[in-house]
Amino acid sequence: MGLSLGKRWGRSHLIVSALYGQGLLENERDVEAKVAALFQVHGRVTVGFDLRARFDVGTQSDEGEAAAGDAAGPERHLFDLVAVRWPQFRWGPSPS
C-alpha cells in the first residue's frame, strides 16, 4: 500500500512517496519513505537525486528473530538509507 504526491514548479519537480509492505511471515513488515527532487535541463534530460529510507516495523520476539534469520539471512537490519544522484534521458517522441 502506498501514497505518492508530486509538485512541479517550472522545470523543477518534487516527488514524495510513503509505502507500507507486508511479507508472508508475521514479522516481515516495513515502512518506506522516498523523496526525489528533479530538474529538467533539456527537453529530454533530467537530473536530480533520490533519497529512500526503509524502517523494519515487524515484531521482534526471540522465536520471530530465529524465523526471520532463517528467511532473510543471518543479519536483520532495522533501518537502511539510500541516496543517489542520477541523470535521466527520455527516448522517443518529444512531448508536445
- Structural class by secondary-structure content: mainly beta
Q: Tally the helices: what do you get?
A: 1
CA radius of gyration is 18 Å
The percentage of residues in β strands lies in: over 45%
Basic shape: elongated
**Average predicted local confidence, pLDDT:** 80
Overall number of structural domains: 1
Order of helices and strands: EEEEHE
Taking the alpha carbons of the first and last residues, their distance comes to 33 Å
Number of strands: 5
Structural write-up:
- The protein is about 10% helix and about 55% strand.
- It is mainly beta.
- The chain has one domain (about 1-90).
- Strands 1-2-3-4-5 form a five-stranded antiparallel beta sheet, with no helix packed on it.
- The longest helix has 11 residues, at about 60-70.
Detail the topology: elements first, then pairings:
Elements: E1 2-9, E2 12-22, E3 29-40, E4 45-56, H1 62-72, E5 79-89
Antiparallel strand pairs: 1-2, 2-3, 3-4, 4-5
